[in-house]
Design brief:
single chain; Rna Polymerase Sigma Factor, Chain: A; Arc Repressor Mutant, subunit A; two-stranded antiparallel ribbon; 9 helices; 70% helix
Amino acid sequence: MGPTVRIFGEQMPHLVHTTTKPVSEQPAGDRDLLLAIQRGDEEAFAELLDRKTGPLLALTHRMVWDREEARDLVQVTFLRVWEHRHKFDERFSPNTWLYRIATNLAIDFLRAKRTRLSKLEPVRQHLYRVVKQPDTNLEEILERDILSVLQDLTSALTERQRLAFVLGQIEGLSTREVASILECRESTVRNHLFAARKVLQGELLRRFPEYAGRRRTGKQ
């Protein structure tokens, strides 16, 4: 085993590598990288990390709506990948295995956060009333508001509904892939998506009645 670094007190392969591959060499597929990682190949692990950090960060951020927490979840995801590398089954899609690890971690985080927030809700409401928002430019306001709306709407979903919606509607995974990640039937995924759309539609109309008025009158 080559040099290692410690992350969260655990040893992982060193993530800095300087090996330059020949230009003519075809890049390894995700499945090949995971099979190499099973053999303890640290360069393959570093390549997988470089390749999948962005998609996993986008996924976890849409789940927890906190960029720093999302980064931590991705880091722990790769820690789990290395720790459990021998459990990867090459019959399944690499993305399915990676997304399952990341989404399970996100679910655990959301459950723990919900418990903490339930105890702090009176304090949070008080601070919300008395703290003024800092000045910002129009672009920042628009971006913040859009993200805030999406966060508020998806917060009304159950954990499974949110996962099915994010994976299927935002990440664009197939029903079969989502079912494999959630470890349930495809019909269950379709039920989650149907319920999620109904909840989101209801929340949108409830929170933005002016939008509901346009829908009723047919105005644009």
